[in-house]
Specification:
Number of strands: 8
Number of helices: 7
Bound molecules: 5-O-phosphono-L-ribulose
Distance between the termini: 27 Å
Structural class: alpha+beta
Helix content: 40-55%
Number of domains: 1
Largest sheet: 8 strands, mixed
Radius of gyration: 17 Å
CATH superfamily: Class II aldolase/adducin N-terminal domain
CATH topology: L-fuculose-1-phosphate Aldolase
Strand content: 15-25%
Length: about 230
Protein backbone atom coordinates (compact mmCIF):
# COMPACT_ATOMS: atom_id res chain seq x y z
CA UNK A 1 0.00 0.00 0.00
CA UNK A 2 3.00 2.33 0.41
CA UNK A 3 3.28 2.88 -3.36
CA UNK A 4 -0.46 3.62 -3.64
CA UNK A 5 -0.25 6.03 -0.69
CA UNK A 6 2.56 7.87 -2.48
CA UNK A 7 0.59 8.01 -5.75
CA UNK A 8 -2.55 9.27 -4.03
CA UNK A 9 -0.56 11.80 -2.01
CA UNK A 10 1.03 13.13 -5.22
CA UNK A 11 -2.35 13.24 -6.96
CA UNK A 12 -3.79 15.24 -4.03
CA UNK A 13 -1.00 17.80 -4.37
CA UNK A 14 -2.03 18.35 -7.99
CA UNK A 15 -5.34 19.88 -6.82
CA UNK A 16 -3.76 23.09 -5.45
CA UNK A 17 -1.17 23.01 -8.27
CA UNK A 18 -3.98 23.23 -10.86
CA UNK A 19 -5.98 25.69 -8.77
CA UNK A 20 -8.84 23.26 -8.25
CA UNK A 21 -9.15 23.73 -4.50
CA UNK A 22 -9.48 26.55 -2.00
CA UNK A 23 -8.29 25.68 1.53
CA UNK A 24 -9.04 21.93 1.93
CA UNK A 25 -12.17 21.76 -0.24
CA UNK A 26 -11.30 18.64 -2.12
CA UNK A 27 -9.88 15.15 -1.97
CA UNK A 28 -8.43 12.40 -4.15
CA UNK A 29 -8.47 8.64 -3.69
CA UNK A 30 -7.00 5.66 -5.55
CA UNK A 31 -7.79 1.95 -5.29
CA UNK A 32 -5.93 -1.35 -5.30
CA UNK A 33 -8.61 -3.59 -6.84
CA UNK A 34 -6.76 -6.83 -6.04
CA UNK A 35 -6.65 -6.01 -2.36
CA UNK A 36 -10.09 -4.35 -2.36
CA UNK A 37 -8.63 -1.36 -0.49
CA UNK A 38 -8.42 2.30 -1.38
CA UNK A 39 -6.33 5.21 -0.13
CA UNK A 40 -7.83 8.66 0.47
CA UNK A 41 -6.83 12.07 1.76
CA UNK A 42 -7.46 12.64 5.47
CA UNK A 43 -10.25 15.08 6.33
CA UNK A 44 -9.36 18.72 6.85
CA UNK A 45 -5.57 18.35 6.59
CA UNK A 46 -4.01 21.25 4.68
CA UNK A 47 -2.26 20.37 1.44
CA UNK A 48 1.06 21.93 2.42
CA UNK A 49 1.12 19.82 5.61
CA UNK A 50 0.16 16.55 3.95
CA UNK A 51 2.58 13.59 3.83
CA UNK A 52 2.22 10.15 2.16
CA UNK A 53 2.01 8.59 5.64
CA UNK A 54 -1.08 10.70 6.40
CA UNK A 55 -3.11 8.93 3.73
CA UNK A 56 -5.96 6.80 5.10
CA UNK A 57 -6.55 3.22 3.93
CA UNK A 58 -10.19 2.12 3.63
CA UNK A 59 -12.04 -1.02 2.56
CA UNK A 60 -14.96 -1.12 0.13
CA UNK A 61 -17.48 -1.32 2.95
CA UNK A 62 -16.28 2.02 4.28
CA UNK A 63 -14.22 0.72 7.22
CA UNK A 64 -10.92 2.37 8.09
CA UNK A 65 -8.09 -0.14 7.77
CA UNK A 66 -5.11 2.12 8.51
CA UNK A 67 -4.35 5.75 9.29
CA UNK A 68 -4.03 8.17 12.20
CA UNK A 69 -6.52 10.67 10.78
CA UNK A 70 -10.19 10.47 9.88
CA UNK A 71 -10.71 9.89 6.17
CA UNK A 72 -12.21 12.67 4.04
CA UNK A 73 -15.84 13.39 4.86
CA UNK A 74 -16.60 12.48 1.23
CA UNK A 75 -15.30 8.92 1.72
CA UNK A 76 -18.79 7.30 1.60
CA UNK A 77 -19.30 8.81 -1.89
CA UNK A 78 -15.94 7.40 -3.02
CA UNK A 79 -16.97 3.97 -1.58
CA UNK A 80 -20.19 3.92 -3.61
CA UNK A 81 -18.44 5.05 -6.81
CA UNK A 82 -15.79 2.30 -6.49
CA UNK A 83 -18.51 -0.30 -5.86
CA UNK A 84 -20.89 0.82 -8.61
CA UNK A 85 -18.24 1.69 -11.25
CA UNK A 86 -15.87 -1.31 -11.09
CA UNK A 87 -13.73 -0.06 -14.00
CA UNK A 88 -12.50 3.08 -12.20
CA UNK A 89 -9.26 3.29 -10.23
CA UNK A 90 -9.28 6.84 -8.86
CA UNK A 91 -11.81 9.45 -7.71
CA UNK A 92 -11.56 13.22 -7.21
CA UNK A 93 -13.92 15.61 -5.49
CA UNK A 94 -13.50 19.37 -5.69
CA UNK A 95 -15.42 22.60 -5.43
CA UNK A 96 -13.51 24.05 -8.39
CA UNK A 97 -15.30 27.28 -9.07
CA UNK A 98 -16.49 27.05 -12.70
CA UNK A 99 -17.71 23.47 -12.47
CA UNK A 100 -19.29 24.17 -9.09
CA UNK A 101 -21.05 27.23 -10.51
CA UNK A 102 -22.78 24.93 -13.03
CA UNK A 103 -23.57 22.52 -10.17
CA UNK A 104 -25.03 25.30 -8.07
CA UNK A 105 -27.11 26.42 -11.05
CA UNK A 106 -28.32 22.81 -11.37
CA UNK A 107 -27.26 22.56 -15.01
CA UNK A 108 -25.62 19.90 -17.14
CA UNK A 109 -22.61 21.24 -19.07
CA UNK A 110 -23.41 20.84 -22.78
CA UNK A 111 -20.66 19.83 -25.16
CA UNK A 112 -19.97 23.07 -27.00
CA UNK A 113 -16.70 22.11 -28.63
CA UNK A 114 -13.91 19.70 -29.33
CA UNK A 115 -12.00 20.44 -26.12
CA UNK A 116 -14.91 18.86 -24.26
CA UNK A 117 -15.49 16.10 -26.85
CA UNK A 118 -11.85 15.01 -26.76
CA UNK A 119 -12.33 13.79 -23.17
CA UNK A 120 -16.03 13.53 -22.34
CA UNK A 121 -18.75 12.01 -24.54
CA UNK A 122 -21.81 14.26 -24.39
CA UNK A 123 -22.92 16.54 -21.61
CA UNK A 124 -21.50 16.44 -18.09
CA UNK A 125 -24.60 15.50 -16.10
CA UNK A 126 -25.79 17.42 -13.06
CA UNK A 127 -27.62 15.21 -10.60
CA UNK A 128 -30.59 16.48 -8.61
CA UNK A 129 -30.59 17.59 -5.01
CA UNK A 130 -30.98 14.91 -2.42
CA UNK A 131 -34.29 14.84 -0.55
CA UNK A 132 -34.45 15.84 3.10
CA UNK A 133 -34.68 12.13 4.04
CA UNK A 134 -31.68 11.24 1.86
CA UNK A 135 -29.64 14.08 3.39
CA UNK A 136 -30.53 13.15 6.94
CA UNK A 137 -30.04 9.41 6.40
CA UNK A 138 -26.56 9.45 4.82
CA UNK A 139 -25.78 12.50 2.68
CA UNK A 140 -22.40 11.43 1.31
CA UNK A 141 -23.35 7.81 0.66
CA UNK A 142 -26.61 8.83 -0.98
CA UNK A 143 -24.71 11.30 -3.16
CA UNK A 144 -22.79 8.35 -4.59
CA UNK A 145 -25.97 6.29 -5.04
CA UNK A 146 -27.63 9.21 -6.82
CA UNK A 147 -24.66 9.62 -9.20
CA UNK A 148 -24.57 5.92 -10.09
CA UNK A 149 -28.38 5.72 -10.47
CA UNK A 150 -28.36 8.81 -12.71
CA UNK A 151 -25.68 7.29 -14.95
CA UNK A 152 -27.78 4.12 -15.25
CA UNK A 153 -30.96 6.09 -15.94
CA UNK A 154 -29.28 8.17 -18.66
CA UNK A 155 -27.44 5.17 -20.13
CA UNK A 156 -24.09 6.86 -19.54
CA UNK A 157 -20.88 4.86 -19.45
CA UNK A 158 -18.65 6.17 -16.62
CA UNK A 159 -15.61 5.42 -18.81
CA UNK A 160 -16.93 7.82 -21.49
CA UNK A 161 -18.25 10.42 -19.04
CA UNK A 162 -15.65 10.67 -16.25
CA UNK A 163 -17.27 13.66 -14.50
CA UNK A 164 -20.49 14.60 -12.76
CA UNK A 165 -21.92 17.67 -11.06
CA UNK A 166 -23.88 17.40 -7.82
CA UNK A 167 -26.53 20.10 -7.53
CA UNK A 168 -25.69 22.76 -4.95
CA UNK A 169 -22.48 20.94 -4.07
CA UNK A 170 -19.52 20.37 -6.39
CA UNK A 171 -17.90 18.05 -8.89
CA UNK A 172 -16.71 14.44 -8.85
CA UNK A 173 -14.41 13.00 -11.51
CA UNK A 174 -12.77 9.63 -11.93
CA UNK A 175 -10.27 7.77 -14.09
CA UNK A 176 -8.21 4.62 -14.40
CA UNK A 177 -6.09 5.82 -11.46
CA UNK A 178 -5.82 8.82 -9.13
CA UNK A 179 -3.72 10.83 -11.59
CA UNK A 180 -6.14 10.35 -14.46
CA UNK A 181 -9.01 11.31 -12.16
CA UNK A 182 -7.18 14.60 -11.42
CA UNK A 183 -6.53 15.09 -15.14
CA UNK A 184 -10.28 14.77 -15.71
CA UNK A 185 -10.97 17.26 -12.90
CA UNK A 186 -8.78 19.79 -14.75
CA UNK A 187 -10.64 19.07 -17.98
CA UNK A 188 -14.05 19.43 -16.28
CA UNK A 189 -13.06 22.80 -14.81
CA UNK A 190 -11.74 24.09 -18.14
CA UNK A 191 -14.78 23.01 -20.14
CA UNK A 192 -17.07 24.46 -17.44
CA UNK A 193 -15.28 27.80 -17.78
CA UNK A 194 -15.42 27.78 -21.57
CA UNK A 195 -19.09 26.73 -21.65
CA UNK A 196 -20.08 29.54 -19.26
CA UNK A 197 -18.24 32.13 -21.36
CA UNK A 198 -19.68 30.66 -24.52
CA UNK A 199 -23.26 31.11 -23.25
CA UNK A 200 -22.40 34.64 -22.12
CA UNK A 201 -21.12 35.55 -25.60
CA UNK A 202 -23.98 33.81 -27.39
CA UNK A 203 -27.03 32.92 -25.28
CA UNK A 204 -28.47 30.98 -28.27
CA UNK A 205 -25.39 28.78 -28.66
CA UNK A 206 -26.09 25.13 -29.60
CA UNK A 207 -24.09 22.04 -28.66
CA UNK A 208 -21.38 21.06 -31.14
CA UNK A 209 -22.70 18.93 -34.04
CA UNK A 210 -22.96 15.27 -33.06
CA UNK A 211 -20.65 14.20 -35.92
CA UNK A 212 -17.94 16.52 -34.61
CA UNK A 213 -18.39 15.26 -31.04
CA UNK A 214 -18.17 11.66 -32.31
CA UNK A 215 -15.10 12.34 -34.44
CA UNK A 216 -13.22 13.92 -31.57
CA UNK A 217 -14.29 11.50 -28.85
CA UNK A 218 -13.68 8.33 -30.86
CA UNK A 219 -10.38 9.59 -32.26
CA UNK A 220 -8.97 9.35 -28.74
CA UNK A 221 -11.06 6.50 -27.31
CA UNK A 222 -12.30 3.06 -28.29
CA UNK A 223 -10.94 0.42 -30.65
CA UNK A 224 -9.72 2.87 -33.30
CA UNK A 225 -8.18 5.36 -30.90
CA UNK A 226 -5.37 7.35 -32.44
CA UNK A 227 -3.88 7.99 -29.00
CA UNK A 228 -3.08 5.26 -26.50
CA UNK A 229 -4.76 5.43 -23.09
CA UNK A 230 -2.79 7.82 -20.95
CA UNK A 231 -1.56 9.90 -23.88
CA UNK A 232 -4.46 12.28 -23.67
O1 LIG B 1 -17.86 18.94 0.12
C1 LIG B 1 -17.25 19.26 1.11
C2 LIG B 1 -17.78 20.32 1.97
O2 LIG B 1 -18.92 20.94 1.37
C3 LIG B 1 -15.95 18.58 1.36
O3 LIG B 1 -15.66 17.92 0.16
C4 LIG B 1 -14.72 19.41 1.55
O4 LIG B 1 -14.86 20.33 2.53
C5 LIG B 1 -13.54 18.48 1.87
O5 LIG B 1 -13.77 17.77 3.05
P1 LIG B 1 -12.65 16.84 3.68
O6 LIG B 1 -11.54 17.72 4.21
O7 LIG B 1 -12.14 15.96 2.53
O8 LIG B 1 -13.34 16.06 4.75
Amino acid sequence: MEQLKKEVYEANLLLPKYDLVTFTWGNVSGIDREKGLFVIKPSGVEYDKLTPEDMVVMDLEGNKVEGRYNPSSDTPTHVVLYNRFPQIGGVVHTHSSWATSWAQAGRDIPCYGTTHADYIYGEIPCVRNLTREEIEEAYERNTGVLIADEFEARGKDPAAVPAVLCKNHGVFTWGKDAHEAVHNAVVAEEVAKMAARCEMLNPQVEPAPQELQDKHYYRKHGANAYYGQGDQ
